[in-house]
Description:
The chain has 87 residues and is mostly helical. Helices cover 87% and strands 0% of the residues.
Amino acid sequence: xxxxxxxxxxxxxxxxxxxxxxxxxxxxxxxxxxxxxxxxxxxxxxxxxxxxxxxxxxxxxxxxxxxxxxxxxxxxxxxxxxxxxxx
Length: 87
């Protein structure tokens, strides 16, 4: 379910990016925007998307770790320690 939610969000972002690019190209063709402005805006938009994606991943990771702790599930580190203790 979580995976589907993430893919849905990423799909929505991709559709939005494509629509924005299409609209900017239309404005550029009509002469209402300069090519440099369009390129600069798209690069800025892409960087903001990357930053937002990185922040989302970090928040998701922290949330999952918190859930694992709350449920009392063993982590990979816990299992490795147990292996060592059993040797």
